[in-house]
Write a structure and sequence with these properties.
The protein has about 450 residues and is an alpha+beta fold. It has 21 helices and 13 strands. The strands form four sheets. A seven-stranded mixed β-sheet has the order 3-4-5-2-1-8-9. Strands 6-7 form a two-stranded antiparallel sheet. Strands 10-11 form a two-stranded parallel sheet. Helix 12 (about 255-260) packs across helix 17, helix 13 packs across helix 16 (about 320-330) and helix 17 (about 340-365) crosses helix 18 (about 380-395). The protein binds adenosine-5'-triphosphate and magnesium ion. Adenosine-5'-triphosphate binds near residues 33, 45 and 121.
């Protein structure tokens, strides 16, 4: 084993843990993603530690230093050490046994030397370890690959992806996040073995896929690895090279989707990005070609809703995520509100959150058409106007739901209305009146209106 001398700045708390393990006679290194990020000058999300100490020894050394530990995954050798309220995962050097189900190692084996621990890791840039006294351990050329911006499986990619196919999606996630290219054979194995993903727990896939979708270089990865994307979301495959027969569209449905995706703002979250990826999923199912040879996909937003719902179910997304994705897909062809009143109604109908997400998606969708769009064309003007209307409404005293009214059910009862469904109906009526600008959102005015309504 050789060490490369070089300095990485490690936070004091992580150094303390390395120090207490070494003082107890063990080896300890920071390892994996944090070493990669530190060498790239990025701020690591967390500092993982790998050590020759067995779990009981990690706990004993931590206890000696007065630190709390949590048995995170004792069977896999992981103990979380808490220092200044901050958790650090400390894992015993280990090798993974056979992966007969392609999902979990059948067994793991604790090791005394770091070599085997680094060999079980997925990509060379993730397989480096560092200790301030001994320097960098880099057995697989991780540093060179990091410098060249290359993602390369540790060892034979076919073996490694067969052991755990999740690594295919992790690799794409890293490529999208770091802007790296994928080494030839690693890339080939990703394409060829993509169907092994069928046997991977979908929760694990979604975590990595969501990371891919949020990566700054997601689009070239989604394009080059469309086949892998379709292995994860088979419903998207019909979009590939699906001709829209429409002069308004330069691209086929999948290419349009990728161009729309390219316009996603950096702060768009993974759930909305999934909706953007799925927004036209209904199109190939309802496209009709008229006598002039022109394609129409009227109602493709509604057509896409149940398909998007199925995708969310298969990805085991939460109820809330599913609601967001389906709502956005089903409503992305919304009519652009052109007056204050229409905008207020739009906000009430969709809720402020979804309303803004719908606008974000529509903006991307427009850009994804791929046609030159002079800023003074009618659609762009209408859209810009609507965005301004939305800003104004969101910045004004917002009234998008009954809870935003300057009056509540208790007030109505205090004013003599009987408890019961009539209260709810009265509040709904007041909301409508406020949204339509008939009554100001003021307590007295609302009370008067309520009394009129119930007379
Ligand atoms: P991030 O900074 O996004 O967390 P990371 O590289 O730290 O990236 P983690 O999922 O936190 O990724 O995993 C930590 C380390 O564990 C990786 O760097 C890699 O060495 C190893 N690893 C994680 N998952 C796998 C896997 N499925 N197969 C092999 N090694 C893995
Ligand atoms: Mg990590």
């Amino acid at each position: 084993m050789y060490h490369i001398s070089m300095d990485i700045e490690i936070p004091q708390s992580a150094q303390t843990i390395l120090g207490l393990l070494e003082a107890a006679g063990h080896e300890a290194y920071v390892v994996g993603g944090c070493v990669r990020d530190a060498l790239m000058g990025r701020d690591p999300a967390d500092w993982d530690i790998t050590t020759s100490a067995k779990p009981e020894q990690i706990k004993a050394a931590a206890a000696e230093a007065g630190l709390k530990t949590v048995d995170t995954g004792i069977a896999h050798g992981t103990v979380t050490v808490i220092i200044d309220h901050e958790p650090f995962e400390v894992t015993t050097y280990r090798a993974d046994g056979e992966y007969s189900d392609g999902r979990h190692p059948d067994s793991i084996e604790f090791l005394d030397r770091i070599d085997g621990d680094l060999a079980r890791r997925d990509f060379t840039v993730n397989a480096m370890a560092y200790n301030p006294a001994r320097g960098l351990v880099d057995h697989f050329g991780g540093q060179a690959d990091l410098q060249a911006g290359v993602l390369r499986a540790v060892g034979d990619p076919y073996e490694r992806f067969t052991e755990d196919a999740l690594r295919i999606v992790r690799g794409l996630r890293f490529a999208a996040q770091l802007g790296f290219s994928i080494e030839e054979r690693t890339s080939q194995a990703m394409h060829e073995l993509r169907n092994l993903l069928d046997d991977i727990a979908v929760e694990r896939i979604w975590i990595e896929f969501a990371g891919l979708l949020c990566g700054k270089d997601a689009v070239p990865v989604l394009r080059e690895y469309s086949d892998v994307v379709f292995a994860i979301i088979p419903e998207l495959a019909v979009e590939y090279e699906f001709d829209q027969h429409n002069p308004f569209h330069v691209y086929d449905v999948w290419e349009h989707t990728l161009h729309a995706f390219e316009a996603a703002p950096p702060d768009m979250d993974a759930t909305v990005r999934l909706a953007l990826l799925l927004h036209d999923i209904g199109k190939p199912h309802c496209l009709v070609i008229d006598e002039d040879g022109r394609g129409w996909a009227i109602g493709h937003d509604k057509e896409g809703e149940p398909i998007a719902r199925k995708v969310c179910r298969d990805l085991k997304l939460s109820r809330e995520q599913t609601e967001t994705v389906t709502h956005l897909v089903a409503n992305h062809m919304f009519q652009i509100p052109d007056t204050e009143r229409a905008m207020r109604r739009f906000l009430v109908r969709h809720g402020a959150g979804h309303a803004q997400q719908l606008f974000a998606i529509r903006r991307c969708d427009k850009i994804g058409l791929g046609r030159e769009q002079p800023p003074d064309n009618p659609m762009s003007i209408a859209f810009a106007k609507a965005e301004k209307l939305m800003d104004e409404q969101l910045n004004a005293e917002p009234v998008f739901g009954v809870k935003d009214l300057a009056i509540n059910g208790r007030d109505l009862m205090d004013a003599g209305m009987a408890q019961g469904p009539a209260i709810g109906r009265a509040l709904d009526g007041l909301l409508e009146a406020v949204v339509d600008g008939e009554v100001p959102n003021e307590h007295e005015a609302l009370l008067m209106r309520a009394q009129q309504l119930t007379q």
